[in-house]
Structure formats: structure tokens, C-alpha cells
Amino acid sequence: MPYLWGGTPREGIDCSGLVQAVFRLNGLALPRDAEQQAVMGRPSAGPTSPGDLLFFGAERITHVALSAGGRDRIQAPKQGGVVERTRLDGGRTLLAVRRYLPDP
Questions:
Q1: How far apart are CA 36 and CA 40, in angstroms?
Q2: Which of 13, 17, 39, 90 has its CA 20 to 30 A from that of 78?
Q3: CA nearest 65: which of 94, 26, 44?
Q4: Residue 15 catalytic?
Q5: CA 73, CA 52: separation in Å to the nearest integer?
Q6: Does 7 have pLDDT greater than 70?
Q7: Which residue range is the domain that position 40 belongs to?
Q8: Can 36 be counted among the known catalytic residues?
């Protein structure tokens, strides 16, 4: 699916829209924006579990990705990109990890 800032799953999708859609399909309601999503759930320390949300930015949160477990993530990365599965690589500054699902 192509990246589209503020997009919905029909035309394209951005990072927070992807996360919102995945959780909605699994019965959990999340706000639309990454900054709003980052204040919900609970902090998670240590290794990430599938379903944890990874929040990135510099001085404020500007990106969210869905943990696929360990260092793998699923994200809608940027304009011109598509939803992808990648590894955490240090290209963005990880600011927070939040858990919304029960502990594994």
C-alpha cells in the first residue's frame, strides 16, 4: 500500500493510520495521530514484543511503527514509500515503546 500523509486504507496510508487500522481490525481503538497514540497504553522496557508501538522523532514524536518482535518493525515510512517490514537500524531516534496488548 502506498504512503499517503493523513491517508486512509483506501487511497494510501501514513504511519499512524496504519497502526490505527491494525489495532481497529483487532478490536482496539486508538487515536489517529502518533503523538496521541504515544500517551496511551503503558511503557515497555526491554525487548519489544509483537504489537508494541515504537515511537520516533527528535524533540517530539513524528513517526510510529508496529513492532514485529525483536528488532523487526512494520511501518509506512515516508512519502513515495510503501508499507514495509524492516529492522531497527538507528536511522531514526527511538523515543518510546508503548504496549497496548497483554504481556506475552
A1: 7
A2: 39
A3: 94
A4: yes
A5: 9
A6: no
A7: 15-99
A8: no
Residue given cell 496504519 in the structure block:
18
Q: Which of 20, 36, 63, 79 is flagged as catalytic? A: 63
- Per-residue pLDDT of 13-41, as tens digits, reads 889 999 999 999 999 999 989 999 999 99
- Report if residue 7 sits inside a domain: no
Residue 4 has pLDDT above 90, yes or no: no
In a domain, 65, yes or no: yes
To the query of whether residue 75 is one of the catalytic residues in this protein, the response is yes
Number of domains in the chain: 1
Residue 39 belongs to domain with CATH number: 3.90.1720.10
Can you give the pTM of this predicted structure?
A: 0.87
Active site residue: 20, 36, 37, 75, which one?
75
Count of H-run helices and E-run strands, the chain:
2, 6
